[in-house]
Write a structure and sequence with these properties.
The complex is a heterotrimer of chains A (about 325), B (about 280) and C (about 450). Chain A is an all-alpha fold. Chain A is built from 14 helices and one strand; from the N terminus they run βαααααααααααααα. Helix content of chain A is about 60%, strand content about 0%. Chain A has two domains: about 120 residues, no CATH class; about 150 residues, no CATH class. In chain B, strands 1-5 form a two-stranded antiparallel sheet. In chain B, strands 3-4 form a two-stranded antiparallel ribbon. In chain B, strands 6-9 form a two-stranded antiparallel sheet. In chain B, β3 and β4 form a beta hairpin. Chain B is elongated and about 95 Å long. Chain C has about 450 residues and is α/β, with parallel strands linked by helices. Chain C has three domains: about 260 residues, 3-Layer(aba) Sandwich (Rossmann fold), CATH 3.40.50; about 70 residues, Ubiquitin-like (UB roll); about 80 residues. In chain C, the strands form four sheets. Chain C has a six-stranded mixed β-sheet with strand order 1-14-13-17-15-16. In chain C, a hairpin with a 7-residue loop joins β13 and β14. The chains are: A mainly alpha (about 325), B alpha+beta (about 280), C alpha/beta (about 450). Chains in contact: A-B, A-C, B-C. β1 of chain A pairs parallel with β2 of chain B, so a sheet runs across the interface.
Chain lengths: ~325, ~280, ~450
């Protein structure tokens, strides 16, 4: 008996799981780096987040949705777990990590209907939930351990240092910021996954090469941050940090490459993606400069996530449209 | 002190908002015949469109406004509802005949073997545009349940074994939604009686007898035996397909026995001992 | 390198029969010739059962403006004139001719191999010959060429484009023609230029066929005003609208034909048929068909008579492979899966593709992750994911507002979807529903006007 189906009779070999696995592979350098820097605590925290995320997704799809096919198989819960843990400081108690996972998967993802239906980035919702619930625990970074020949330096993040000193009336030349080289390699304080620019960029290049993501969002996020902070730096270099510090510190790289590019919560069209990216960049810099928190990447991404349905109203250029 | 302030403030806001709402409601009030609402509340509220109007509200307006209730019938509510409304409005109600939906196909999986394996979305309307049929018969039921989804009363279920729709005539209101969506046009609204006894041809195949028979063992092959045996001249055969006129049929069941392929369907008759049962 | 600007995909090429010479398929015993091998009205049979016909005898008369003549492809007797299932299984009128094995051609046809380059015809004579020979667009759309060459008054044609893109995976029929019949194709282009009264013609060829580009460029140099343009490989470059954009930069306005911006596009095979019809008096009764598939022993480019059954064509290349689960008429992107192997080769059949059990079935569907790949892939700049959602919910007005009718069903969206959603299925369903709705609305409007 012949099979008959409407055209096309050809389908791409890529599938959701392969895309998700690509993202996981791209996260490996940053993961390895976090273990090198923070030791076994990074491994334990990440494992806790991943296992609890996968468990919550499995449990919800099995006992609440009563699905026959469990969505866990597509690996997206693992990504949520890894990204959540990458956004947490190493001192955070493990039970908080589990609560973060529950919020990320249960509230941000599954309550909207599961993969592809969520409006907000699950990992970021989990992170922000923890940040507003346990602000003290979420902003305490321990001193970085020595690794290799490089000495560990500071307990606070560079952005935290800047915010603190400017609030207390100092100018930037008066404070001791880590060198650009340290920031680039990751010899600074911060959350598990966000400290090493180089590891994240390697992952980003891998994602671009495998066409898992397009260049639009990372470039527009980092570009707009660079330009806006650059303008502020030129106006007053004493009160505003160097644009390079801005794009190399905090969650900028992790956010631009891995969080903002989440498929479900980013716009569909190329133009939409650029607008989305610029929005994130601008809001991040505004929060960093004028907000109460030293870092605004997660808030910026969540705010722009909310606007995505509106951005999706922008139509791509249509062939033969009447001008 | 703060608490007192807050409470006071809330009270003031409440009073202001209350006044605002009152004036807005007064200003934008529309006058509507109160009968509309009352009649509408008597209707089932299914908005099925079986009456021919877009929704129960429009139908209620029509019932109130039109001088007589002739030609107006709520299929979903049935005569009970119409009588109640007629009484309420003081208008006489025409007696509507009872009808239910039937599917004119008996081609279950075992009777009508598949000739190709179709892969595509589960929509009869889509399949009908793409291929003639995945069986040898291009007239019969596709079995993907467009009618099941169209029925608002849950009166249609696709039997997973036969892949044919089954109608619950107790639920069926003869609104005609299923007949409208069926791309093969094999659903008919047929006259029935209180016991839901009816006889109809369960086939829509217009191919020549041999072709139809090859495609489906339960096909009407247009042999005309039923037409010959019918005493009331209710049966006509056109395009190799028999049709039983429900107005002329006296439910004698002779044709059912005569049909060589068993394509004629009878429903809710008592077991075949008392041969000459005629009702209606 | 030139290409169209919006969307497009890069499916695996799989041109298995690349570089194979055109072979002549064995003469079929019986041919079943459909009366509807083109878009428009089916032809009317003008022979009766029992009549003797030669190769090239007209057996079906064009029945309207958009219609085409049909010719016998074997010599023998007419056995049956009846309704048989076509590719999709719908019944259509077809003429069955039993071959007498002698292969006697009509006397008027020039069967020699000599290349004739006679330009003494007037434009009207050429057009009449093309129309008479029953030539239709042989790329798959099967629009009668005679109609294309007669633009309605007020429209000036200034550009002739020849489509040698052959962007469908697997297919190599046009490629083989360009390698072997370059001069004939160029003469065909000259003839079309004369009909349309244009001075230049552009032949667009994707650069995955460097030998064809070289051969055509070399041959075109002998003629004046034929330019060969290499194109970047991208599907669906062979679509009329996209070839126009790639070669001229113009866009055909939504809902209009290429003629409205002064373009006429003709396919390579069609152009070759024009040459044969005008210079050799040979009507359209045979064509080059790519017979291919990964499991096939000998993928080939065959010269096949119209009406030969698919089974016979497959037998000519060593029979149908055992694990074949799907046979497609045309390419894998826009071709149609056939229901049974008796379906005949027609004017628009550019290929016969056998897919194995592993290749034939659709991948399993999963949740849409809103990655936007369908939007990036759509060459018309539409939003397939939106059509999917709206079509599922039967929101017809919205579908129409988002220009679902612009979709020409190239399949790029379904191809690129990582969740393997049958996007195009839903778009087709939505399109059919929208058309129905519009028809209904128009009928209502007409009724209201009548009342007034």
């Amino acid at each position: 008996m012949l099979t008959v189906s409407p055209s096309p009779h050809y389908q791409t070999d890529t599938n959701t799981r392969k895309l998700m696995c690509n993202v996981l592979i791209a996260l490996i350098p940053a993961f390895v780096f976090s273990i090198v820097v923070f030791g076994v605590s990074a491994l334990i925290s990440t494992l806790t987040a991943v296992i609890s995320c996968v468990f919550f997704e499995f449990a919800i799809s099995k006992w609440l949705f009563k699905d026959e096919e469990y969505s866990v198989k597509d690996c997206s819960a693992i990504i949520t777990g890894v990204l959540l843990s990458f956004n947490l400081p190493n001192t955070l108690p493990l039970w908080m990590v589990v609560i973060g996972s529950l919020v990320a998967i249960g509230i941000a993802k599954m309550s909207f209907g599961g993969l592809g239906c969520n409006i907000f980035n699950p990992a970021l919702v989990g992170r922000v939930f923890l940040l507003v619930s346990f602000p003290a625990d979420m902003t305490t970074w321990s001193k970085v351990q020595d690794y290799g020949t490089i000495d560990g330096t500071t307990g606070a993040t560079p952005l935290g240092l800047i915010k603190e000193s400017i609030m207390s009336g100092k100018t930037l030349s008066q404070i001791d910021l880590p060198s650009m080289q340290d920031m680039f390699l990751g010899n600074i304080g911060g959350s598990f996954g966000e400290i090493s620019v180089i590891a994240l960029v390697i992952g980003g290049i891998y994602l671009l090469c495998t066409r898992t993501i397009t260049w639009h969002i990372p470039v527009s996020v980092l570009g707009s941050m660079f330009i806006l902070s650059g303008i502020m730096f030129v106006v007053n270099p004493e009160l505003n940090a160097n644009p390079l510090i801005h794009i190399c510190s905090g969650g900028a790289m992790l956010g631009a490459i891995f969080m903002a590019t989440d498929y479900s919560t980013s716009p569909m069209t190329s133009l939409g993606k650029i607008i989305f990216g610029i929005g994130i960049g601008v809001i991040t810099i505004i929060i960093r400069k004028f907000g109460a928190y030293p870092e605004g990447m997660s808030f910026a991404i969540l705010i722009m996530n909310a606007i995505v349905p509106l951005i999706n109203k922008i139509k791509p250029h249509r062939y033969g449209a009447k001008k | 002190m703060t608490i007192v302030h807050s409470i006071l403030l809330l009270c003031i806001i409440g009073v202001i908002a209350g006044f605002a709402l009152y004036f807005v409601a007064k200003k934008f009030k529309t006058d509507e015949n109160p009968l509309y609402g009352e009649v509408e509340s008597m209707l089932p509220g299914a908005n099925c469109g079986g009456c021919g109007f877009p929704g129960c509200k429009k139908f209620a307006q029509m019932l109130v406004d039109s001088p007589s209730l002739e030609g107006l019938n709520c299929t979903a509510g049935g005569s009970e509802t119409m009588n109640k409304i007629g009484e309420f409005l003081g208008k006489s109600v025409q007696k509507a005949e009872m009808r239910v939906a039937v599917v004119k196909c008996k081609g279950s999986c075992d009777k009508r073997p598949k000739t190709v394996n179709f892969e595509g979305i589960s929509s009869c309307a889509f399949v009908a545009t793409q291929i003639s049929s995945d069986t040898g018969c291009s007239f019969g039921c596709i079995g993907l349940g467009d009618c099941e989804r169209a029925c608002q009363f849950g009166g249609i279920k696709i039997n997973p074994e036969t892949k044919l729709p089954e109608f619950d005539s107790k639920i069926c209101t003869a609104c005609g939604q299923c007949a409208e969506v069926c791309p093969r046009h094999i659903i008919e609204l047929r006259k029935t009686n209180k016991k839901d006894m009816k006889i109809y041809v369960g086939c829509s195949n217009k191919d020549k007898g041999a072709v139809a028979r090859k495609a489906c063992t339960a096909a009407c092959i247009g042999c005309g035996k039923c037409a010959k045996v019918c005493a009331n001249e209710a049966i006509t055969v056109t395009d190799f397909l028999a049709y039983i006129d429900p107005e002329k049929c006296k439910l004698c069941r002779k044709c059912v026995e005569e049909c060589p392929t068993g394509a004629i369907i009878e429903t809710n008759f008592p077991p075949r001992k008392k041969k000459e049962e005629t009702t209606n | 390198m030139k290409t169209f600007h919006i969307g497009g995909i890069h499916p695996k090429e799989n041109k298995l029969s690349k570089g194979k010479k055109i072979e002549i398929a064995p003469l079929p015993q019986v041919v079943t010739i459909p009366m509807a091998q083109h878009i428009g009205k089916p032809a009317n049979p003008i022979v009766a059962v029992g009549d003797t016909v030669k190769v090239g005898t007209k057996i079906g008369e064009s029945s309207g403006f958009v219609s085409a003549n049909i010719f016998s492809s074997v010599s023998g007797t007419v056995e049956k004139i009846d309704f048989f299932p076509n590719i999709a299984g719908f019944k259509q009128q077809m003429i069955v001719i039993k071959s007498d094995g002698t292969d006697t051609w009509e006397d008027t046809i020039d069967r020699t191999d000599t290349i004739v380059n006679n330009m003494d015809f007037t434009a009207d004579e050429i057009k009449a010959k093309i129309t008479e020979a029953g030539i239709v667009g042989m790329g798959g759309a099967t629009f009668p060429l005679g109609v294309k060459l007669s633009p309605p008054p007020g429209i000036v044609i200034d550009t002739l484009l020849i489509n040698g893109a052959e962007c469908e995976p697997y297919l190599t029929a046009d490629h083989a023609l360009m390698l072997e019949k370059a001069e004939e194709i160029c003469i065909g282009v000259e003839l079309l230029k004369k009909v349309l009264n244009v001075s230049t013609a552009k032949i667009g060829i994707e650069n995955n066929k460097p030998d064809a580009i070289e051969n055509m460029t070399k041959t075109a140099a002998k003629f004046s005003g034929i330019e060969v343009v290499p194109l970047k490989v991208k599907y669906p470059q062979g679509s009329e609208k996209h070839l126009i954009q790639a070669l001229t930069g113009r866009e055909v306005p939504s809902g209009q034909l290429p003629g409205s911006i002064g373009c006429v596009v003709s396919n390579i095979a069609t152009t070759f048929a024009v040459y044969e019809a005008v210079e050799k008096n040979k009507p359209l009764f045979e064509r080059v068909v790519t017979v291919t598939g990964t499991a096939l022993q000998n993928p080939s480019n065959l010269l096949v008579r119209m009406g030969t059954s698919t089974a016979d064509v497959l037998a000519a290349v060593g029979g149908i492979p055992e694990n074949t689960a799907k046979v497609i008429s045309g390419g894998p992107m826009m071709g149609k899966a056939i229901q049974n192997l008796d379906v005949p080769i027609m004017k628009g059949s550019s290929g016969v593709l056998c897919m194995t059990e592993e290749e034939a079935h659709r991948h399993k569907e999963s949740n849409c992750i809103r990655c936007g790949r369908c939007v990036d892939a759509c060459p018309m700049g539409l939003e397939p994911y939106l059509f999917y959602a709206l079509s599922k919910r039967k929101m017809l007005t919205e579908l129409n507002e988002h220009n679902i009718r612009d979709c020409f069903e190239c399949g790029s969206c379904s191809f690129s979807c990582p969740a393997h959603k049958p996007l195009l299925d839903y778009i087709r369903l939505g399109k059919a529903n929208v058309m129905q709705m519009i028809k209904k609305q128009e009928a209502e409007k007409a009724q209201q006007q009548e009342k007034k």
